[in-house]
């Protein structure tokens, strides 16, 4: 599952505008009118969902194993060095492609999960799988996580899973060449999926019209049922087959434009802005690293429930070009930027897994304390 390089994508005029619609862009992609005030109990929940594919480009098995082992070696150091405002180490979530399951590739990640520093969830490309094969692949993978890797939820209940669809083709949105299942949302719910984290894609066929909102979508007999849904609200549980927790979706100027603006002034640089706009989907990559400007845009549009802001980012961290920069200081910079920005605003910040982010959302739905629920108190 590859995202477009923003240096190329940015040459188009804000892709996504035509199919999301101008009113939605203005309402949800430029700013959020429910921006919390300084202080006042505001919390930021940050989760990173890695589309982790150690068999990317079909390498020899030793290379693939090393891609997983690299994270096993480096992530504990980063997690411990980057605590959130409660003093808890950062969490990371690996969405592993279940159709490429291999014990030796998953076990290093499972060890991080058993240490309480990471989690393992479901990522799947199933253009070559039947409906039965889709179900079997997910069920076998989930059973292996429990049976062979000892991964269980703290509550002892059957292990539910978070989901990311390969090739951005959730619910057959890009056709049978990439999916082929029209009732995928309902099927995922039946299999034990607690939430989908595929969006945003920024792609014409698959991008949902409902952006920067956490919502529940109800399946239909047609593809792309997640295009719309009922937004989640504090104190109220809304109906739907599957919860959708998207990442930030917004236009932004490049960091180089911001640097030149500081040096040469806004009025001189405004003429270059159309050429320097990018569509930001919350990807962390070698070609799009975290920065203060990106973080501020994310926080301005990210889904929120009351005074709780939910920021879901993603990466393809098994690829060397990305792991080199993420494990070589990129992730530490991200967590430092979040800590600095939140402290300046008087906000708390929590570095969580996607499972913990879902728990926080459901706690707010039920009128409960999300921090207490996530921490198991």
Overview of the structural elements:
The protein has 377 residues and is of the alpha/beta class. It has a single domain, classed as 7-stranded beta/alpha barrel (Alpha-Beta Barrel). Helix content is 37%, strand content 17%. The protein is built from 13 helices and 14 strands. Strands 1, 2, 3, 4, 5, 11, 12, 13 and 14 form a nine-stranded mixed beta sheet that branches. It has a three-stranded antiparallel beta sheet with strand order 7-6-8. β4, α7 and β5 form a beta-alpha-beta unit. The longest helix has 26 residues. It is globular, with a radius of gyration of 20 Å. It starts with 5 loop residues before the first helix and ends with a helix.
Question: What's this entry about, in short?
Answer:
The chain contains 13 helices and 14 strands. It is α/β, with parallel strands linked by helices. Strands 1, 2, 3, 4, 5, 11, 12, 13 and 14 form a nine-stranded mixed β-sheet that branches.
Mean pLDDT: 88
Largest sheet: 9 strands, mixed
Detail the poorly predicted runs: 1-13
Q: What's the level 1 CATH class?
A: Alpha Beta
The helix-and-strand class reads alpha/beta
Tally of individual domains: 1
What's the tally of helices? 13
Note the run of SSEs as H and E. Answer: HHHEHEHEHEHEEEEEHHEEHEEHEHH
End-to-end Cα distance, whole Å, is 37 Å
Percentage of residues in strands:
15-25%
Q: What is CATH's topology name? A: 7-stranded beta/alpha barrel
| Proper CATH architecture | Alpha-Beta Barrel
Label the overall shape: globular
Percent range for helical residues? 25-40%
Computed over alpha carbons, the radius of gyration is 20 Å
Count of strand segments:
14
